[in-house]
Structure formats: C-alpha cells, structure tokens
Design brief:
The protein is α/β, with parallel strands linked by helices and 269 residues long. It is built from eleven helices and nine strands. The chain has a five-stranded parallel β-sheet with strand order 2-5-8-1-9. Helix 10 runs antiparallel to helix 11. The longest helix has 15 residues. It is elongated, with a radius of gyration of 21 Å. It binds adenosine-5'-diphosphate. The site of adenosine-5'-diphosphate has 17 residues, from helix 2, helix 7 and helix 9. The site of adenosine-5'-diphosphate (ADP) has 17 residues, from helix 2, helix 7 and helix 9.
Length: 269
C-alpha cells in the first residue's frame, strides 16, 4: 500500500456551502458533544462528504479523510515504521494524527476496507476512546475533539459485506439520500451556476431517471452527476450533449439503457 494515497494533510476548510436536509447538523453536533462516533449511510454522490467537510469547518476542526479500498490495512490508518537516512522511524497514519490532535477522521466507504481495521476502531468508538499502537507499545487516549466518522453506501452490492452489529451499535447513524427537489435545485444552482429554470429542469430529469430503478441502471444518477451536467450546460454546451456525456455514458455501458436515458433526456431538454 502506497502511503501517499492516503490523505495525511487535513483539508483547508473554507466555509464550504452545505444545504441541510433535516436535523443532521444538530445531530452531528450532539454526537460531537458526547464524544460519540458517527456513521453516515447513503448512495454515492448524495452529499455525505460535503456534510462532513461542512461540519469540520463549523466545529473548527481539522479533517483527515481516508478513501477506503479493499487493500486498506490497519497500518495504513494507524502508521508504520519507515526506513530513512538515519535508520527507522515511526510515521503516524491519518487516524493516529487525528487522535493525537483532536481532529475528525473520516473513513469514506469503510466497508471496502479489510475487516481487521475493526480491531482499532472498536476501542476508539466506545467510551474508552483509546487507540492501541501495537507497533510502538503506546496506548493513545483520544484528545478532546477527536471524532470518528465513517460512511458507506448500502446499495445492493454491499448488502453482503455490511458492517457487523457489534461495530454498527457503537455509532450514531444517519441515513442520507438525494436531496428533495427544491433543495437539489438550489444546490445545483450554487454548484454549477445554472439558472433556476434550468436547474429545475435538470432536477426533474434526474428524478425521472431515478425512477428507472435498479433493473435498468446499476446506480441512480447522483447529485454530483447532476452538478457535472449542469456545469457543462451553464458553460453553454448543448443540454442533450451534456446529458449524454455526464449522464448516459457514466451511468451505463448498455446501448439500450443509454438509448432509454436519452429518450427521457429529450422529454426534458
Ligand atoms: P458523497 O460523499 O455522498 O459521495 P459528496 O458529498 O461528494 O457525495 O457530494 C457530491 C457533490 O454534490 C458535492 O461536491 C457537492 O457539490 C454536492 N452536494 C450534494 N449534497 C449537497 C448539499 N446538501 N449541500 C451542498 N452541496 C451538496
């Protein structure tokens, strides 16, 4: 595993725009107050990462984000000994840094990671809030402000891999979904520069495609995908071409499904 693939540098927070859909901001703040970890489930591109960036900003915390994948090991999170010019030295991983600094550590798509990471997550995710570093013999007490946040997409492909109950029950959990139409239109206008009428058209198209269901598409069009389409349209591109490039092609490789998408596109643009 190449350590450079992990984000060891906290993102600079710059007042990122976030449109709340419910009580998620308050819930997150309460979880933080009580030192409880947070689990966010929801389809890809629905605003999970943006929400956490917003909350880190709001709480004035550093944020370490780790995009989990099936090779991700405990050492990638916690740290490892490296060999340098002056011999071996210990390098903290992003989780350890967050624990020491009282920052937020966000494990995106946590169920992709290897199962052995639960060994370090469990003592951190309950009242103990400790991180045992086996390699150095240290047992770190999480600094005030440390928060563990994990997310995953409970789509059908992940059903079998889901988190174990003993892990899930340590978290305050929130279910995210695509924003409702008025909110999604506002987000589109803000993020892509579309005017309100076009943003509404694109949201209506997105919702029509979402109703196609899983038989036709592996995954529904996300808010992110609508934003990409909206940016090209706002830049002056022909809307149908933008929808072909940002919707039909990314959503499926099946020519019949692409044709079905373009039929729906032509009803809207
Ligand atoms: P996820 O982490 O769920 O895959 P993201 O948080 O990266 O998705 O969302 C994709 C993009 O959609 C964001 O970069 C942002 O532009 C936009 N977005 C989605 N939901 C919201 C929201 N509630 N407020 C502001 N922007 C949002």
């Amino acid at each position: 595993m190449d350590a450079t693939r992990l984000d060891l540098h906290p993102q600079q927070q710059s007042g990122l725009y976030y449109h709340a859909s419910g009580a998620e901001v308050e819930l997150f703040e309460q979880a933080d107050r009580f030192g409880m970890p947070v689990l966010i489930k929801g389809p890809t591109g629905c605003g999970k990462t943006r929400f956490i960036q917003h909350m880190a900003d709001r709480l004035g915390r550093k944020l370490y984000t780790v995009a989990c994948h099936d090779d991700l090991t405990t050492a990638d999170l916690v740290g490892r000994h490296l060999i340098g010019a002056n011999g071996t030295f210990w390098q903290d991983g992003p989780l350890t840094r967050a624990v020491r600094e009282g920052a937020i550590c966000y494990l995106d798509e946590v169920i992709e990671a290897r199962k052995d990471i639960t060994v370090v997550l469990h003592p951190l995710a309950d009242d103990r809030r400790i991180l045992p570093l086996e390699a150095t013999g240290e047992e770190l007490q999480a600094a005030p402000g440390f928060m563990l946040v994990v997310s995953y997409n409970p789509g059908y492909r992940n059903l079998l891999k889901g988190l174990k109950p003993s892990t899930r029950q340590r978290f305050v959990a929130m279910a995210f979904d695509y924003p409702e139409a008025v909110a999604e239109s506002r987000i589109l206008q803000h993020e892509s520069g579309l005017d309100p009428a076009q943003a509404n058209q694109l949201v209506a198209l997105g919702n029509a495609l979402r109703h196609l269901g899983q038989h036709d598409l592996e995954e529904a069009p996300s808010t992110r995908l609508l934003i990409h389409t909206g940016r090209l349209i706002a830049a002056g591109m022909d809307p149908r071409q933008a929808c072909e490039a940002c919707m039909a092609q990314p959503l499926t490789d099946e020519p019949t499904a692409q044709a079905a998408i373009m039929d729906i596109v032509r009803v809207h643009f």
